[in-house]
Amino acid sequence: MKKLLILIFWSNVLFGQQTYTNPIIHADYSDPDVCRVGEDFYMVASSFNAVPGLPILHSRDLVHWNLIGHALPRLQPEEHFSVPRHGQGVWAPSIRFHQGEFYIYYPDPDFGIFMIKSKNILGPWSEPVCVEAGKGLIDPCPLWDDDGRVYLVHAFAGSRAGIKSILVVKPLNAEGTKVIGPGVIVYDGHEIDPTVEGPKFYKRKGYYYILAPAGGVKTGWQLALRSRSPFGPYERKVVLEQGETPINGPHQGGWVDTPDGGNWFIHFQDKGLYGRIVHLQPVEWIEDWPMMGDKGKRQPVLKHNLPLPSHTWSSPNDALEWQWQANPQATWSMYTSEGKMRLFALPGATNNLWNLPQVLLRKFSAESFEATFRLKLALKEGEEAGIVVMGKDYASWVLKPTKEGIQWLYRTQNNAQDGLEPEDQLLGSIKFTKEVHVKLRVKSGGLTQVSYSLDGKKFERLGPVFQAKEGLWIGAKFGLFAKRKDFTNDSGYIELQNFTIQD
User: Which residues pair with 187 in a beta bridge?
Assistant: First the structure.
């Protein structure tokens, strides 16, 4: 049987019958960019206020990706990001490999454009260097030219800069660490390409190319601009748009080639509460234009032959999926010698989890999925902990010890960013217990039901079905929290004994 399966696999590869289906990642990896080093592909994405930031994913076939680390262990400035700053932080980054080093350029829309680098994709990464300070400077991408000169293209966020829908190219110093000139407006999209942004910079066969999305996240299209000079003037062509497909706003990503000469484009689709999920399009160069997607139609493919033989692998590091809402303090969470993650119930001034720093979250990983937590409880009276599904509207299922037992509360908040206190509904009480199992089921469309068990076998529903909602520029997330109102010299905790997730 094993020989038969191997024969089928290789015959499928040889005869072009192995296919992939979009999206290749049904999770919120917003504003992806990609580079290739040998036979390895690396992807980065926006991470906003989540910590650690700047996720790095790895693939050998452009279809199957593993999260292998984060390039930013903490966000800068430290004090600014000690509290949740939803929608701030790391916006659209770019990744390049140049002379034996990986470079990541990323924007913070409130502080400027930054660069970090490393000789090893797993780090350690250098401390962020401010390439150019300023508000609203976003979506940077470098280009090292054949003559040794270095350039940077970027866009503007109207919310901070007061201008938008234009792209500029600026000269960088040889080290790529500093803008050394005012730059030139190379494209103005106001007339036919509003909200042009997210540019990526390339050179091919004597042409300089800027690939940039326009038209807005939910309904836009992908542009290719080309010129014989980095400073223009640039010609324009739409190379990908929704067309007759259900893939709205297909744009913003990176072009990459494969070792066998193939060409591909990775981009996102805004899928509401699921965030900006990742698609892969074939690219065909026609008259020196990168035409993307379904051949001759400039629209996304839903299914296509694999770029390369499939390279799946197992045992990803699940712990990498967890991120805090702000720069963590050393006391928030620790691992035990048995490898269990312990969250301490430390003071939090608000019951509104949108504003609470010590909330540990992860992305929705599929259209529908089931996640199960086995929690050790060591909470004290006056403390609480639980499960949360986070977004602009959120719900949490809260364990709260009292003198009589442990209460289950259902806590909800609509328009959480308004800063109001959430509403509590008492669901019932359970006897004092050292362990509880909590199961979270998300159905298609984000309908979420939570249940619990004391023995891990018989589960009881806990509260009503909750409609998950997106966050600020991101998809819904779910996770854990623990808190108390006032300081004590010996806080209680919850401990994650086991966690499983199934699509």
Answer: 167
**pTM attached to this predicted model:** 0.95
**Full DSSP string of 288-350:** TEEEESSTTT-S--SEEE-SSS--------GGGG-EESSPPPTTTEEE-TTS-EEEE-EE-S-
Give the burial class of 72: count Cβ atoms within 10 A of its Cβ; 0-12 exposed, 13-18 middle, 19 or more buried.
buried
Q: What confidence score (pLDDT) does residue 312 get?
A: 72
Catalytic residue list contains 197: yes
Catalytic residue among 28, 197, 241, 495: 197
**In angstroms, how far is CA 358 from the centroid of its own chain?**
19
Q: How far apart are CA 113 and CA 131, in angstroms?
A: 5
Strands 369-378 and 346-347: unpaired
Answer for the pair 153, 140: CB distance below 8 angstroms, yes or no.
yes
Output the six-digit token pair for 270. 């805004």
Q: Which of 45, 28, 109, 38 is nearest to 254 (CA)?
A: 45
| 235 annotated active-site | no
Q: Sign of dihedral through CA atoms 300, 304, 305, 306?
A: positive
For residue 460, give both structure tokens.
Answer: 């009881």
List Cβ neighbours of 201 (8 Å cut-off, separation of 6 or more).
141, 142, 143, 151, 152, 153, 169, 208, 209, 210
Distance CA 196, CA 157 (A): 10
In this structure, the strands spanning 359-363 and 323-324 are: antiparallel
The string of pLDDT tens digits covering residues 329-365 is 999 999 999 999 999 999 987 889 999 999 999 999 9
Question: Cis ω on the peptide bond leading into residue 328 (within 30° of 0)?
Answer: no
Query: What Cα–Cα distance (Å) separates residue 183 from each residue in 8, 168, 212, 235?
Result: 55, 6, 18, 19
- DSSP letters, 137-170, are EEEEEEEE-TTS-EEEEEEE-HHHHS--SEEEEE
CB atoms within 10 A of CB 288: 13
Residues 108-166: tens digit of each pLDDT? 999 999 999 999 999 999 999 999 999 999 999 999 999 999 999 999 999 999 999 99
97-109: string of b/e by CB count within 10 Å (b at 16+)?
Answer: eeeeebbbbbbbb
Of the residues 31, 61, 139, 383, only one is catalytic, namely 31
